[in-house]
Amino acid sequence: MRNTRTKVLLYVLNIIMSLLFIIPLLWMVVSSLKPENQIFADLSSLKSLLPLHITLDNYRMAFERIPMMKYLFNSLFYVSVICISGLGVNSICGYALAKLRFRGSEFMLACIIALMIVPFESILMPLYLVVNALHWVNTWFALIVPFIANCFSIFMFRQFFMDIPNEILESASIDGSGPLKTFASIVVPLSGPVFATVFILDFITHWGDFMWPILVTTGESLRNIQLGIQTFFTLPPIFYGQIMATLTFTTVPIIALFLLLQKYYVQGITSAGIKG
Amino acid sequence: MQTAINAHKREQLSTFNRQRRRETLVGYSFVTPAVLLLIFFLVLPFLLAVAFGFTKFNLLRPDKIHFTGLDNYKLLFTDGLFYKSLWNTLYFTVIVVPVQSAVALMLALLVNNSLKLRNLFRIAYFSPVVTSMTVIAILWISLYNPNEGLINSALHFFGISNQPFLRSSSQAMNSIIFMSVWQAAGYQMMIFLAGLQGISKDLYEASSIDGANKLQQLRYITIPSLYNVTVFVLTITTIQAVKLFVQPYIMTNGGPENSTRTLALLIYQQGFQFRNAGYASAISVIFFLIVVLISFSMKKLLRDK
């Protein structure tokens, strides 16, 4: 009897809290599907959360005013390149630090852990000057290259590779397979989860890139989707429905990816928390 | 005989050395791409930030740089805007960290059970985390709209009159705080949840045999077991909080009356809008020291299990 009461209480509390967390996002999606005047007419009633007059006009009109598809493509492109090349560069570095004995490897690992502390905000300006000196401003290089190597990813890979038994690697090297081949044909297939985790953590981070793209993209051509919606938001005439359409459009891909790789994302967050 | 053994040993040793040398070579070649990238795009900019802190130059004329010693730092400690930004950053941090962590712990306790719909609730709490901050900030500008916003409509329902939220210097920062907690609590919830699931069930069973109630279990088992996880959560939340940038940049641009200007926003504005690269670097260095201080306090607070 007491158990049922606890259960009911838990359900009630959960439902109230879930509503608090979901209502703003629900309002965003529902409003994006409504005619502009209906959004305001419904504002003071529960109808504001119900899609009663569904129309795609907001999407159509917003897409006519700004190149949303181009922004989407830009974001998907450069974020994918960062993440995929990052998987290569960081995994192989993490592997060397975990499994190969060479002079200075411990010092390198210590440096990489120490560098995890440096906040991006504090190197923003000199990084801009470096990128500027390379004549990379307003090129894909500026958005991609500085973010391929990532101390946190290297550390995650290293932690994971430490747990791979040495016997497997040794038997491969007795069979005459070179270190790169051992890594590619034995280590990588065993390490799907850590690759998925690093990928999704990195992807969600860079999908939200905002501060850096403001600085290094000067024109429309390289603008990412976050900058796109921000400029649209300040572009008169302002229509709520159209703004909500662009926000929803921006959110859908990342939610889809999250649901696909949810397990790995959560593992990534929590393993960092448990291991410290 | 002796020489033959020695020769054999020498041969063994040289194969060993050769292997060793080969492993070293392979090791260096494996770390080189990452290390080079980190040196160019992290270490070098960091050293430059420290060096630039002692200089004065315009961002667009990096060739006309001159050394000014500690002038930037002297200026910094007499600059009212710096103190205001530092204060705002600390205010945001001091409120957000305990509130957000408490909300996160509460959510974790709410979904750490065998309810059928618990995964649905978890996704609900987590959905704002995945949504980018730009989207959230723009969405909440609309929600906070003083005349036609959803929140004021809801407040009307409870008989509360229109609030100015982001347009008032006394409410703007608190509005950003509320939104930030809402956005990020799900993240810390996940970490707490993993911590909760790591606590042995035996502890609860034993204590309930001894007659402990749920509240006592929370006080004497759950909270002490979560010590390290809590320290970690507090640290990452603090570091995230002192970096506050996107919300004020998009929602208030630091206003009204500088009430939401933060250190990260000040670095950005001094560096890129006013082009005082040296001065902005000096603020960056202070900012970095604050983050280091937080990280080291965590190291000190962590207990070995």
Automatic annotation (TrEMBL), chain A:
- Name its cellular compartments: Cell membrane
Membrane topology listed for this record:
Multi-pass membrane protein
Q: Which residue ranges run through the membrane?
A: 9-30, 76-98, 107-128, 140-161, 182-204, 238-261
UniProt keywords (A-Z) are: Cell membrane, Membrane, Transmembrane, Transmembrane helix, Transport
Report the record's Gene Ontology biological process terms. transmembrane transport
The record's listing under Gene3D superfamilies reads:
MetI-like
Predominant location: membrane
Q: Which family does it belong to?
A: Belongs to the binding-protein-dependent transport system permease family.
Identify this protein by name.
Answer: Carbohydrate ABC transporter membrane protein 2
Species, as recorded: Paenibacillus sabinae T27
From TrEMBL, chain B:
Originating species: Paenibacillus sabinae T27
Q: Which GO terms describe its cellular component?
A: plasma membrane
A GO biological process of this protein is: transmembrane transport
Family of this protein? Belongs to the binding-protein-dependent transport system permease family.
How does the protein's chain sit in the membrane according to the entry? Multi-pass membrane protein
Write down what this protein is called. Binding-protein-dependent transporters inner membrane component
Q: Which Pfam families match?
A: BPD_transp_1 (PF00528)
Q: Which InterPro entries match?
A: ABC_transporter_permease (IPR051393), MetI-like (IPR000515), MetI-like_sf (IPR035906)
**Compartment(s):** Cell membrane
Q: Where are the transmembrane segments?
A: 25-54, 90-111, 123-143, 176-199, 220-242, 277-296
